[in-house]
Write a structure and sequence with these properties.
The chain is α+β, with helices and mostly antiparallel strands. The chain is built from nine helices and seven strands. It is 37% helix and 11% strand.
């Protein structure tokens, strides 16, 4: 395939940045999207030009690093996949592909297509954990009875990889789907109920402090989430927050 790539180039956080056109040829439909970018970067390096900076790690849809906005959609045209799982057979010969970083105040651009998502880390540090006694006298987790439905819902929430697609897809740049997934995976389990009140209050406060917007109730976050995290988690977090506010 022969393609035209329109890629956001930005030297650093202070640079204004702009879209730059890159023609690329002989791209196999069996390549992944990131492999196609590897080919482009090798061509740029061979010509003595600066390669395009983009984030990646496992390339197996697990780490959530490959945060790319492709043709106006988080992670590209397919659903329930990350950018590294997107293949070039999703495009046609002669296509023009727009590639941009996430756009959110809380996700400042570091360089080109790489954004700073440490705001997610700070939200998790605010309460996305449980405090347990690790003295060696702890109760085996498998010995605690948990209803299967709750266990399944907690596991589904825990599949969130923190990629930020929910934020990128939301016109308000809301992080509520991410935060609610982290709240829910503990709120549904007895191990997480001990600190439930402080957890939801602290994590929501940190989310607001980071500059994320409010939920739009349009559901774009669930549609673009590569792991299919449900909006039901946002409803659960709202209930947890309301209850915690009365207790506080």
């Amino acid at each position: 395939m022969n393609l035209t790539l329109k890629i956001w180039r930005q030297k650093n956080a202070d640079d204004k940045g702009k879209m730059v056109d890159y023609p690329i040829s002989n791209i196999s439909e069996d390549m992944s999207f990131l492999e196609m970018l590897d080919v482009l970067n090798q061509e740029l390096i061979d010509k003595g030009e600066e390669p395009v900076a983009f984030d990646h790690d496992c390339r197996e849809g697990i780490c959530g690093s490959c945060s790319l906005y492709i043709n106006g959609r988080a992670h590209g045209p397919d659903t329930l996949i990350t950018a590294c799982q997107l293949h070039m057979r999703s495009f046609k010969d002669g296509d023009t592909i727009y590639i941009e970083p996430w756009r959110a105040t809380a996700f400042p651009v570091i360089k080109d297509l790489i954004v700073d998502r440490t705001s997610f880390d700070r939200i998790q540090q605010a309460g996305g954990f449980i405090s347990v006694n690790t003295s060696g006298n702890t109760q085996d987790a498998n010995a605690i009875p948990i209803e299967k439905q709750n266990a399944d819902m907690a596991f589904d929430a825990a599949t969130c990889i923190g990629c930020g697609a929910c934020v990128a897809a939301c016109k308000n740049s809301s992080a509520m789907l991410f935060v609610s997934a982290k709240v829910s995976q503990f709120a549904l389990l007895p191990q997480g109920r001990v600190e439930a009140t402080d957890r939801v209050l602290n994590m929501v406060k940190q989310m607001d402090d980071e500059g994320f917007g409010n939920c739009t109730n349009t559901g774009a976050c669930e549609v673009e989430c590569p792991k299919g995290i449900s909006l039901e988690n946002i409803a659960r977090m709202n209930r947890e927050y309301l209850a915690a506010s009365f207790k506080g």
